[in-house]
Amino acid sequence: MRTLISTAFISLDGVVEAPGGEPGYRNSGWTFKDIEFLPEAFDIKGREQQEATAILMGRTSYEAFSPVWPDMADFAGYKVMPKYVVSTTLTDNDLVANWGETTILRSLDEVAALKETEGGPIIVHGSASLNQALSDAGLIDRYHLLVFPLLLGAGKRLFSATDKDTQKLKLVEHEVYANGLQKNIFDVVR
């Protein structure tokens, strides 16, 4: 079975909305404001590109990333990877032509079936709503969280507020950086 990894920039209070400066969110771009940039704190991002063999995202994240990521040197490793977009509304005509193979999945059952195929880790970028649904369905195997020392209040959250049984996590890697960022990698305990 393939490992499904959720990766996120997340505030201490769990917000994942608009870390890179997307419009429409009050605190947009919070990952780059008032926090000293330390390259070592972001090493996990390069490692993810080396270790992942496919990308999974929701429609909204696909529509945000697909016009930008294909031509960015920082994300060159993702250009050649198969991409999977979970959407009930997206069509093949909505897909960009310059970002490699992209497959539309229509349900969480199709995501579960993808996990059963041969291959290495699948990484989930952005996609707050999809992350919540994947977590609630027990499909996420690992979390890569880069926690920022910020309280943002309102905003999209990585984890749902669904009333469910406790889901245990095992901390398998962590580091704290001089700028206050924390890298926390958790495996989901089954």
UniProtKB/TrEMBL annotation:
GO terms for molecular function: 5-amino-6-(5-phosphoribosylamino)uracil reductase activity. Coiled coil: none annotated. Residues 2-182 form the Bacterial bifunctional deaminase-reductase C-terminal domain. SUPFAM superfamilies: Dihydrofolate reductase-like. InterPro entries: DHFR-like_dom_sf, RibDG_C, Riboflavin_Biosynth_HTPR. One of its GO terms (biological process) is riboflavin biosynthetic process. It comes from the Bacteria. It holds the Pfam family RibD_C. PANTHER family: 2,5-DIAMINO-6-RIBOSYLAMINO-4(3H)-PYRIMIDINONE 5'-PHOSPHATE REDUCTASE (PTHR38011:SF11), DIHYDROFOLATE REDUCTASE FAMILY PROTEIN (AFU_ORTHOLOGUE AFUA_8G06820) (PTHR38011). This is Deaminase/reductase.
